[in-house]
């Protein structure tokens, strides 16, 4: 019985020591850099953002990154247009680990929204997230990060022509103009069909 008690005691002591060591080691883990390296695969269905998160382990024990959670939102409108979870890994002591990511954003703005964003120059999105450092339950470390990216090239395709060459007054009325042109074309087609029926009864 005494042996069992001793084993339990030693186990508790070891867990306590390990917790202290992990706590002080985890304090030296930090995000040193985060950014978006490319905006690619542009289509009317979405766009792909590629980037990275650099995590430095200044501690004396290996740091395990459990995962990296993130959201992507339009900076001006604060609309979340993407979210996800990236797989983590191990960062060795005194080294920096890079965690690359590739995010597919399936956000399709309306013509009016695209015009508003382009004319106001508010075409930036934020990639924000948290690096969750793996540890035992008594030690929890969450490292926030943020990066910005300009989605102007993606948003432009939803507007007819480049807004930089469209006068502001016309650009704001562009949806109505397009609707009127389509309406006139439809009316003209119906009129032509009537003439054809008269000629060939």
Task: Explain what the structure shows.
The chain is an alpha+beta fold. It folds into two domains: 2-161, Sandwich (Immunoglobulin-like), CATH 2.60.40.10; 167-201. The chain is 35% helix and 41% strand. The chain contains five helices and seven strands. The chain has helices at 2-26, 111-119, 152-156, 168-172, 174-199; strands at residues 29-43, 46-57, 63-74, 80-91, 95-105, 124-134, 141-150. A four-stranded antiparallel beta sheet has the order 4-3-6-7, with no helix packed on it. The N and C termini lie far apart (110 Å). Residues 8-21 and 161-171 have low confidence and may be disordered.
How are the SSEs placed, and which strands pair?
Elements: H1 2-26, E1 29-43, E2 46-57, E3 63-74, E4 80-91, E5 95-105, H2 111-119, E6 124-134, E7 141-150, H3 152-156, H4 168-172, H5 174-199
Keywords:
single chain; 201 residues; alpha+beta; Immunoglobulin-like; four-stranded antiparallel beta sheet; three-stranded antiparallel beta sheet; 35% helix; elongated
